[in-house]
């Protein structure tokens, strides 16, 4: 004789499945957002170097040319000084180093939440906690994500697309997940 499931057990099973599905949505969202922030951080870090290094080099050349005795060097020094002023102004206005640090911090925060949510749906949801306890934890994760969405810099479309392409290429897949997928496919 096979045991019969009760209506309450079926509801609980459906509720737990819905909780797991929503947790997976939060995990996926966090993965894309984290990778987008990491891509944006890399862009701003590269931008900082691409503008900052030429500024320093050109400032040095301009300074050396200004002290030369030939009049043509004064023109070169003036032009180089103008370029340095423009590059320095761009760097000051855009503040790429701070943007890079902000995106890196945001990416790490989303990545941390992603890990907590993955542990929640892969381990916690398989335990003995009631549906209401699991739902409460899920709402906490959703609130954490919403808070990050409000407080973090926005990811550019370019950074998002770069992140999405990387995820689709498997950059965010762990070896253990690849093994699990191979076992499931067999």
Major β-sheet annotation: none
Mean of residue pLDDT? Answer: 88
Strand segment tally: 0
Helix content: over 70%
Helix-strand makeup class: mainly alpha
Distance between the termini: 32 Å
Features:
single chain, 6 helices, mainly alpha, 186 residues, rod-shaped
Provide a short characterization of the protein structure.
This protein is an all-alpha fold and 186 residues long. The two termini are 32 Å apart.
Mind explaining what this structure looks like?
The chain has 186 residues and is mostly helical. Helix content is 83%, strand content 0%. The protein is built from six helices and no strands. The model has no long low-confidence stretch (mean pLDDT 88).
List the helices and strands and how they pair.
Blueprint: H1 7-66, H2 71-94, H3 96-122, H4 131-151, H5 157-168, H6 175-185
Helix pairs in contact: 1-2, 1-3, 1-4, 1-5, 3-4
């Amino acid at each position: 004789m096979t045991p019969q499931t009760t209506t309450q057990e079926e509801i609980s099973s459906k509720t737990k499945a819905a909780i797991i599905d929503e947790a997976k949505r939060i995990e996926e969202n966090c993965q894309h957002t984290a990778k987008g922030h990491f891509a944006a951080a890399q862009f701003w870090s590269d931008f900082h170097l691409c503008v900052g290094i030429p500024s320093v080099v050109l400032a040095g050349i301009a300074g050396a040319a200004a002290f030369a005795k030939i009049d043509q060097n004064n023109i070169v020094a003036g032009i180089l000084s103008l370029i340095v002023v423009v590059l320095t102004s761009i760097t000051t206005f855009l503040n790429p180093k701070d943007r890079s640090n902000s995106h890196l911090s945001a990416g790490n925060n989303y990545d941390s939440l992603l890990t907590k949510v993955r542990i929640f749906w892969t381990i916690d949801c398989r335990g003995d906690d009631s549906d209401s306890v699991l739902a409460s934890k899920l709402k906490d994760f959703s609130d954490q994500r919403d808070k990050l969405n409000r407080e973090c810099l926005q990811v550019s479309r370019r950074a998002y697309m770069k992140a999405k392409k990387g995820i689709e290429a498997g950059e965010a897949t762990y070896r253990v997940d690849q093994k699990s997928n191979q076992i499931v496919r067999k």
